[in-house]
Structure prediction request, 404 residues.
Amino acid sequence: MNEPTVFQNDLINASAGTPNPARKGGLLLRLIRAAQPITRTEIANRLDIDKSTVTDNVKPLIAVGILREETLEVSGQGRKPRVLSFVDGRDYFIGVNLGVRTSQVGMTTLKGEITDEDDFTTPPNAETALKMARKRIDDLIEANGDKKCRVIGVSIPGLTDAARQKLIYAPNMDWRNVDIAGALQPREDIKVVVENDATAAAMYEARLKIRDSDGDGLMTNFVLVRSGTGIGVGLVIGSEVYRGSGIGRGIAGEFGHMTIVAGGKSCVCGNRGCWEKYASAASAASLYTGDRPLRPNESMPRFVEIVSKAENGETRAQRTLEKIGDYLGIGIANVIMGVGISRVIISGRLVYGWKYIQKPLHEAIERSIIGKLKGWSVEAGEPQGAAIGGALEVAVEEYLAHGF
Prediction:
């Protein structure tokens, strides 16, 4: 039986008077996934559409077993609500996060739980790294032979092509022109989608915001700043990620390599004074040591180690995190001015040091012209959204948009 395509781009029964029906059509399935189990009434209220519109569009997916509707058991008397959720177990998705130091491979279902997560140290050579990831993909598919892998999502810290198949350039990995999808695709019937890791993390955060929002907050705009070895920026407009357009599609949000210190530290991209050399989690090590040569048997401290030292009262560690916050705020003010979106969410390892970073970050923004305006905000997001969570979100989002 051919599965229906009613949700792939449009909410086909939306009334002509409903604004942005196509966008709301995309949000309907995403809302069910993020907030499941959820009633038809709540969906209608949060999307500002008729309940009959919801009913007309979920019926065919219930009929073919993609969605289920069941009675929610609640205590007390009265009519028990009927709730919608995705059928678990029929399909699964694989995520691959290719990081500078560590990579992860895991799987999820439309229910959203991450299972079978595995990690490995990322080899410097792209071919070797992809072979290791492919081996783990093959193992997952073999172990789940009674189910169907729908999409494989890949997140990587670099520029991807417009077709979301190839890596153009990952400065911190020194990988160029790599056919990621071609190397990882196990079968022709399983699609592989490649996404910049900051955009993937923004997709992850967008799902959390949809889950937690009320009707007025469902169409949300925010900037996600993902900080790890480098800095990436993801843009979410109307709850949809923005990737650029035309020849720029796939490179929107590459703010990590904007100059914030003229003639500053050399960056792997070839520039000097890039934002990620001063405000990334990786930059904390050089700020902590003061760029001095390492002593014998001394290694560069990891970010979590610096946070731990700060928690234990070490002044130098606390000052290091405060410097990170100051530089981060300078860059965020520039991003807000550049894109005109005033809500910013921080993702990645920096979240672990948020208690020391937050105040100097806000003070830096307040010194800028943005600080003279009202309405801007910066908040901590989910650290794991920058890793496997984002990669899996890429896979699921592709399926919800085009997979049925």
Notes: The chain has three domains: 21-86, 91-202+387-402, 215-383. The first helix runs from residue 21 to 35. Confidence is low (pLDDT under 50) at residues 1-24. The domain at 215-383 is CATH 3.30.420.40 (Nucleotidyltransferase; domain 5).
